[in-house]
Structures are given as C-alpha cells and as structure tokens.
C-alpha cells in the first residue's frame, strides 16, 4: 500500500523494521489486527514529525505522536503514553494530569523513556509499551482511518488505523488535544 511517497507492507513480514517490543506485541495480537498494521522503512534522520511529513509528503494531521509522560504523586512515580495527531499538542498539564490523578506531570526524560520502553527516542510507539502503562488516545486519533506512528525504531514508521490504536491494551480514548 502506498501512503504519501512511502510503500508499506505488513509489519510482521518485516520484523527487522520493528523494535523487539513492537514485534512481540504484534505477534501476540489477534491475527486480523496484526494484518492491518503496515510498515515502511524511512531515513532515520527524518524520523521527527515535521521533517518526516515534509519529506514523505504526508500531512501532519495524518500522523500521531506518542509522547511519554512521567507522573508523580507523593513518593509514587509512574509513566503513561499520550497519542495526539502530529498537528496537535496534548493537554498534559490539564486533561492528562487530572486523568492520571498526578500531582505533578512532566515529559519523561529521554534516557528513562528509551530504557523503559526498549525503543529508540524519536521512534517510540504505543505498540509494545510496558503492559501496566496507560495509553491515552486523543479522540481525533481514535477516529482517524489511517495514521503514521513510530515503529519503535527511527528507521521505519507504522501505518495503522485509529481504531487499532484505541483497541490496544490499557488504551483509553479522551479529548487530549489542545484547541486553538
């Protein structure tokens, strides 16, 4: 399948284009769900959203960014993923903080995000995140027919449906994007 200027194939047919955690999660999912997840190799230097979209002729609204946040309340620290379209920003200090019942919320430090996910920074995807992490999916992502997301590595991207992202374990659909 072609999307933008990229050619996509079934992700499970190209495990070398996936982080180990991503491949394992797809391998454990329902075969019909996994068959709908496609992958394409990209230039790793173009993995960041704006550069990727411009180079591969894909709208920022057709991509979803996976942002890892670190929540704190008292002595407890935990992590969650937020998925918003590439053209939007997540309301981390409002909706996300309140939903997670955190006193303090910040973007996870890069080193912690990489170590805890087993994925490359700039390629982190919700597919294959630690099983106990909440995955907060913006409703505009959940309703999108086809979206580009990370694959767990910087050298490829996944093409998935919003419905697939909303069906991931621990996924919750919320109005996360800031408007205006």
Automatic annotation (TrEMBL):
Organism domain of life: Bacteria
Family matches, as SUPFAM superfamilies: YbaK/ProRS associated domain (SSF55826)
Domain YbaK/aminoacyl-tRNA synthetase-associated: 44-163
InterPro entries linked: YbaK/aa-tRNA-synt-asso_dom_sf, YbaK/aa-tRNA-synth-assoc-dom
Ranges in a coiled coil: none
CDD domains assigned to the protein according to its UniProt record, in alphabetical order: PA2301
MF terms in GO: aminoacyl-tRNA deacylase activity
Protein name: YbaK/aminoacyl-tRNA synthetase-associated domain-containing protein
Species of provenance: Agromyces tardus
